Amino acid sequence: MFIEVVKSKIHKVTVTEANLQYVGSVTIDVALMEAANIIENEKVQIVNVNNGERIETYVIKGERNSGIVCLNGPAARKCAVGDIVIIISYASMDFEEAKKHTPTLVFPDTFTNQLI
């Protein structure tokens, strides 16, 4: 049996941009991506702390150490600049393997989105 478990989480970052006219996705500072073990094009869930919205999209790389967290395309309707979000990725694994799995959790500065 396979189950889905949390693989990575970027906990409480601030949305810096919302670009409705983009094709789609979320742009994340590559330094945050690397710290959280998230790769480009990986599927993520974004949970908006301010309004409770939960969306799924994929990741594209943003400029390193820029602090960028930009929701693009239709996702831009689900947040506003300044909203606090949590970004979560999941992995599918065997039940026994999942019992031993430890997710990568990153807690950057909420207001600058910089690693502490």
UniProtKB/TrEMBL annotation:
Protein name per UniProt: Aspartate 1-decarboxylase
Reactions catalysed according to its record: L-aspartate + H(+) = beta-alanine + CO2
Pathway named in the protein's UniProt entry: Cofactor biosynthesis; (R)-pantothenate biosynthesis; beta-alanine from L-aspartate: step 1/1
Pfam families: Asp_decarbox (PF02261)
Post-translational modification summary for this protein: Is synthesized initially as an inactive proenzyme, which is activated by self-cleavage at a specific serine bond to produce a beta-subunit with a hydroxyl group at its C-terminus and an alpha-subunit with a pyruvoyl group at its N-terminus.
Binding residue positions for substrate: 57, 73-75
Cited function: Catalyzes the pyruvoyl-dependent decarboxylation of aspartate to produce beta-alanine.
Primary localisation category: cytoplasm
Cofactor remark from the record: Binds 1 pyruvoyl group covalently per subunit.
GO biological process: alanine biosynthetic process; pantothenate biosynthetic process
Subcellular location: Cytoplasm
Record-linked InterPro entries: Asp_de-COase-like_dom_sf, Asp_decarbox
Cofactor: pyruvate
Keywords: Autocatalytic cleavage, Cytoplasm, Decarboxylase, Lyase, Pantothenate biosynthesis, Pyruvate, Schiff base, Zymogen
Annotated catalytic residues: 25, 58
Known partners and oligomeric status: Heterooctamer of four alpha and four beta subunits.
GO cellular component terms given for this protein: cytosol
Species of provenance: Odoribacter laneus YIT 12061
Cytoplasm as UniProt keyword: yes
Lyase is among the record's keywords: yes
GO molecular function, one term: aspartate 1-decarboxylase activity
CDD domains in the cross-refs: Asp_decarbox (cd06919)
Family the entry assigns: Belongs to the PanD family.
Residues bearing the modification Pyruvic acid (Ser): 25
EC number: 4.1.1.11
